[in-house]
Amino acid sequence: MLKILWHKNCISYTDMKINAQKGFTVAELVITIAIFAILAGIAIPSFQRHVVNADLRNAARSVATDFFLYKERAIAENRQYRILFNTGSHSYQIQQPHGTTISTKNLTSFRHDIAISSAEEIDYTLQPRGTVKIGNGTETRAKIELTNSRGSTATVTIYITGKTSVTFNMQ
Q1: Nearest residue to 119 (alpha-carbon basis) of 93, 145, 156, 94
Q2: What pTM, to 2 d.p., does this model score?
Q3: Using CA atoms, how far apart are residues 110 and 127, in angstroms rounded to an integer?
Q4: What is the distance between the alpha carbons of residues 50 and 39, in angstroms, rounded to a whole number?
Q5: Residue 81 has pLDDT above 80, yes or no
Q6: 18 pLDDT band (50/70/90 cuts)?
Q7: Calpha distance 102→66 (Å, rounded)
Q8: Which of 145, 135, 141 lies closest to 169 in space, CA to CA?
Q9: E strand residue ranges, 32-137
Q10: What's the 3-state SS for 13-25?
């Protein structure tokens, strides 16, 4: 209870009540929604770019992982494996030495716009000693370049020592 007493000749106010405001006004709600919409408008395109580039990174890492996996299998099983790239269908096959296809991987399964833009060699043989025969065997390294619709690139480099590396140029 609040009591305010004034000097003589003034009116005395007693039992004055202060009403507390509860809830939000329509104006506050509209302003909050407008701020949220502006922030979403800025964030969504950036998020979409991130998703497109993340799919390209995943595709490139998958290629590098398959090289590593089948190099290890070649060593463990004392046999050769071949990886053959098809730039037209943006896919690659993993084969046993006698030509039996173990699996075919399509890079567009990561995202419809991922493509093999260039491949210095398309035939790689993973040797039982852990090395890679690139093409006819005269090359010491080869590159496979993947691209997406944003113009980003991922380059998978394969060395005859069996090492692979992946570099990215994101747009």
Answers
A1: 145
A2: 0.74
A3: 28
A4: 17
A5: yes
A6: low
A7: 12
A8: 145
A9: 81-86, 91-95, 101-106, 115-119, 123-126, 132-134
A10: EEEECCCCCCCCC
The CA-based angle 54-59-64, given to 5 degrees, is 120
Is the torsion defined by CA of 159, 146, 57, 109 positive or negative? negative
DSSP 91: E
Is residue 6 classed as helix, strand or coil in its secondary structure?
coil
How far is 30 from 65, CA to CA, in rounded Å? Answer: 50
List pLDDT tens digits, range 26-37. Answer: 888 899 999 999
What is the pLDDT averaged over residues 63-80? Answer: 94
- Max CA pair span of the chain: 114
d(CA 31, CA 37): 10
Rounded CA-CA distance 44/47 in Å is 5
Q: What is the DSSP letter of 162?
A: S
For the CA atoms of the chain, what is the radius of gyration? Answer: 32
Amino acid at 141: R
- Asked whether 141 and 168 are in contact (CB, 8 A), the reply is no
Residue-wise pLDDT tens digits, 95-147: 997 889 999 999 989 989 999 998 877 889 999 999 999 988 888 999 999 99
Contacts of 38 (CB under 8 A, 6+ apart): none
